[in-house]
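Here is a tokenized protein:
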Amino acid sequence: MAKVWVLGGEGFIGRAVCRRLSEDGHEVISCSASATRVEKVPSHVRHPRTRVLLIPGYRDLRPDKGDVCVHLAESNLASAPMEGADSSLLGDGKYPDPDDLVRLIESAGFAQVVYASSAAVYGDVSTEARHESETVDPGSPYARRKHANELRFLESGCSAVLRLANTYGPGMSKGNVLSEIIEQAGRGDCVAVNDLAPIRDFVHVEDVARAFSAAISSRANGVFNVSTGSGTSVADLAAIILKIMGRKDLPVTTRSPLIPGRTGTVSARASVLVLSNKRAAEILDWKPRVSLEEGIARMVGGGERS
């Protein structure tokens, strides 16, 4: 087993990763750049093998030989609402420049780095499930930053890059379409979204956490998609949520005018982003376990760990 430093361990994905690694027998250091963020973490998410370490700016990383780094500590202010990065880690002036942070991690001498990248690096122009061997098309500043960091870490030869699909679960940010639908369905007489047509691959945070643990246990290097391999449109997502919440008769509308000749959407071309998880299954021995219906039922029914 390894000693694992989880940068961004107090965020949405970070907490789940720390818990999973601890349960799998690793010694975990949950690293935070913000004291206030540590104070807000519920005590019941802690595990005896996890300790919290406040490192302002992440500038004092002192791993022992053989230690592993999980890098989740990046701002995603430039990301789109449906992208799968850890949206609880918004920049607040306490994080260093992304390039500086990569240099700090590289110079610390970790035996392995597991970097949380994003499905966004692929772009959304293909209707087929994306594979790691494909040419990427990072169209946003967020996606370009993720891809640049991927290349930096992969150059070391001892890093695993996990391209996360749209990660959801308890504790996730409110700034995404899934949280928005749940919130509106719980309080209103209708649900309004920007667009019903986009298709995304929604993967539960517990499955994402297991992928990080699998990458560390296997000491695998290279790029791996962490996904379900199945796409769900916003329209279908809304239908699933409303059915589970017992509110399937609520109308679902878009906020923008419809394009002539189309119904229920504002997109001239549906945005599609689905990832194949075949490589992760073959090399990491990882597959998702939580279905979208089960994951949403846990969130709205109160049966999920937070």
About this structure: The CA atoms of residues 87 and 173 lie 6 Å apart.
